[in-house]
């Protein structure tokens, strides 16, 4: 999203769909049908792998293994899900993922919001330089840090602990930058009144700035959560103990153990995907908003 | 109205914000906080930043100048020997080549398909919610889930991909086992997985474009195609620059899906440079050498971003 994009919203024409530019298609019937067809084909292509996975997960392994294009070759069965859940690991990994992604989100958002406020309103030596370094750090590919971070975790004796998975993930220069830009935009008159009344800086942050920033804080939290939930490389490297693995790591390590049991593979994939699909359905509007607001996000 | 900027949410405030907040600092001196304040707020971030970003960056740089190893604890300074070795290492060059190849064959469709998706959804056809979900849902999936699903689709005998080919009378393809095909298969998976994010960026940009030019051109009798080429696409140039830049950087960093799907095989044909770093560092235990290769790669990433920045600047 360009920095100069105006706040003008598309004008709403009566009798037309609410979003989009109705003019783009002209008034003919043919372009509409054409666009609708292409869109439907694209959407079908995008949904097909998911639907195929769902269909596979609710059949028996024998039916899955028999050739044929029909998505349902045999009777419906929840056998694959039952087996996965019986094995116990998946629920443990899901718990780990939830705990780790939850803690990463809480710590990251707290640390980043405080820093963003300090950078936005603070007066201290080196503020500009520190902010510059923070912004430059956005460029650093996380993979670059993997080898030295692992050495560091060995040094701290933290390998195979929750702390080792969580701590390096809480550094989020991008989120600090996004929050700072938002705080910059909040008019200062409100805070000044509070300051004159003798409110402490923390009080101003807590009671005035933060409540006004709820939407962007929520958006940042959602992106941090998705990022932490989906993070693969770092948790994969720093955990060997199966009891500490996150869902993506655990599933990857047992992928080969599943062998050709595709129904179980698909069932476990769907179980791992479920929480994020729920998050998306709950926060769809907010996620779209935040992409629009920040122009960035995700991993 | 649009879901991008409902009144009273961050969407609008954030965008209008920087302008509304453009006060002159001097005008606020009376009520501004005391000098030195604010540092406390930044302190927790600085702590984790120094500990988990600056330290490993510096340590990585130092390690790249040593023969540091996971197996042996005593290390020696070797100067630029690692870098010299990397330049002469055919595996570095072939994995770099694979990375660049992947970046090209994934980035181009990831930008173009996302643009087409956004333009089509933006035409205002019914079912906005469902289109957005269809295109964005894969982006929400963890990498392991994506690779599990595609391992199944690419399965040689009963996988969907080969069975579909079969119905057209075509023979099976070794999607992940054929050296000439494997990287394309991974690119296809990646396009499916991540196009939704670029799609959202384009959609957001489209929805914030002023419609005046479009309407004026329509009144002057410009057809739909004409307006797409002459008005909408030029207006999207800055967005395209951003999307392309983010995409190239993301594609250069490919590792996860390849590592899980093929471990770089068959015969090294899909091994990206970051997997080589991983192999050398954690399987071969040569941390010093792995650091040198990753710093060379970082230098390449910086050069690519600077070149892109220049290119897009010039276009403006």
Automatic annotation (TrEMBL), chain A:
Top-level taxon: Bacteria
Pfam families: BPD_transp_1
UniProt-listed GO biological process terms: transmembrane transport
Keyword terms of this UniProt record: Cell membrane, Membrane, Transmembrane, Transmembrane helix, Transport
Transmembrane segments: 33-55, 93-117, 129-150, 162-179, 216-237, 257-283
Keyword Transmembrane: yes
Membrane topology: Multi-pass membrane protein
Subcellular location: Cell membrane
Protein name: Putative integral membrane binding-protein-dependent transport protein
TrEMBL record, chain B:
Entries under PROSITE patterns matching the protein: ABC_TM1 (PS50928)
Entry's Gene Ontology BP terms: transmembrane transport
Topology relative to the membrane: Multi-pass membrane protein
Superkingdom assignment: Bacteria
Spans annotated as Disordered: 1-33
Record's keyword annotation contains Protein biosynthesis: no
One CC-aspect GO term: plasma membrane
Family as reported in the entry's similarity comment: Belongs to the binding-protein-dependent transport system permease family.
Annotated protein name in UniProt: Putative integral membrane binding-protein-dependent transport protein
Species whose genome carries this gene: Streptomyces glaucescens
């Amino acid at each position: 999203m360009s920095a100069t994009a105006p706040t003008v919203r598309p004008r709403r024409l009566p009798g037309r769909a609410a979003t989009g530019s109705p003019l783009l298609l002209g008034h003919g019937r043919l372009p509409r049908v054409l666009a609708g067809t292409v869109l439907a084909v694209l959407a079908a292509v995008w949904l097909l792998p998911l639907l195929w996975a769902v269909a596979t997960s609710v059949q028996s392994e024998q039916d899955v293994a028999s050739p044929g294009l029909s998505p349902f070759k045999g009777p419906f069965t929840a056998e694959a899900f039952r087996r996965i859940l019986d094995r116990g690991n998946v629920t443990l990994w899901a718990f780990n993922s939830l705990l780790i992604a939850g803690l990463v989100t809480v710590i990251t958002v707290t640390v980043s919001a405080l820093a963003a406020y300090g950078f936005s309103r603070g007066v201290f030596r080196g503020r500009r330089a520190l902010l510059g370094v923070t912004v430059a750090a956005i460029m650093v590919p996380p993979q670059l840090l993997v080898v030295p971070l692992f050495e560091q975790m060995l040094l701290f004796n933290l390998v195979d602990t929750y702390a080792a998975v969580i701590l390096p993930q809480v550094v989020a220069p991008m989120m600090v930058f996004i929050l700072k830009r938002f705080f910059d935009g909040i008019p200062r008159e409100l805070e000044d009144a509070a300051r004159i009344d003798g409110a402490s800086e923390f009080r101003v942050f807590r009671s005035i700035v933060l409540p006004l920033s709820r939407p962007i804080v929520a958006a940042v939290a959602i992106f941090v959560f998705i990022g932490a939930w989906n993070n693969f490389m770092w948790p994969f490297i720093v955990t060997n103990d199966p009891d500490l693995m996150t869902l993506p790591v655990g599933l990857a390590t047992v992928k080969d153990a599943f062998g050709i049991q595709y129904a179980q593979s698909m069932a476990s994939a769907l179980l791992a995907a479920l929480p994020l699909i729920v998050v998306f359905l709950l926060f769809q509007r907010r996620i779209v908003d935040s992409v629009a607001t920040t122009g960035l996000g995700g991993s | 109205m649009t879901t991008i900027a409902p009144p009273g949410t961050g969407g609008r405030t954030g965008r209008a914000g920087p302008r509304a907040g453009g006060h002159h600092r001097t005008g606020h001196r009376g009520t501004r906080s005391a000098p030195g304040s604010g540092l406390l707020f930044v302190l927790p971030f600085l702590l984790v930043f120094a500990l988990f970003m600056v330290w490993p960056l510096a340590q990585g740089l130092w390690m790249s100048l040593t023969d540091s190893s996971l197996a042996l604890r005593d290390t020696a300074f070797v100067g630029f020997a690692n870098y010299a070795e990397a330049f002469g290492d055919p595996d570095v060059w072939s994995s770099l080549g694979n990375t660049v190849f992947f970046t090209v064959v994934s980035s181009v469709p990831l930008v173009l398909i996302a643009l087409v998706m956004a333009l089509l959804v933006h035409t205002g056809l019914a079912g906005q919610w469902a289109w957005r979900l269809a295109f964005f849902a894969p982006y929400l999936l963890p990498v392991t889930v994506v690779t599990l699903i595609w391992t199944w689709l690419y399965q040689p005998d009963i996988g969907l991909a080969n069975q579909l080919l079969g119905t057209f009378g075509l023979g099976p393809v070794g999607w992940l086992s054929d050296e000439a095909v494997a990287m394309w298969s991974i690119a296809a998976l990646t396009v499916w997985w991540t196009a939704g994010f670029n799609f959202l960026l384009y959609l957001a940009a489209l929805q914030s474009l002023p419609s005046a030019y479009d309407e004026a051109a329509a009144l002057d009798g410009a057809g739909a195609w004409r307006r797409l080429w002459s008005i909408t696409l030029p207006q999207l140039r800055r967005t395209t620059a951003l999307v392309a830049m983010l995409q190239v950087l993301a594609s250069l960093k490919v590792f996860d899906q390849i590592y899980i799907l093929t471990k770089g095989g068959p015969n090294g044909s899909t091994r990206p440079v970051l997997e080589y770093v991983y192999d050398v560092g954690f399987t071969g235990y040569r941390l010093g050498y792995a650091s040198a290769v990753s710093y060379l790669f970082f230098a390449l990433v910086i050069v690519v971003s600077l070149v892109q920045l220049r290119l897009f600047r010039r276009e403006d």
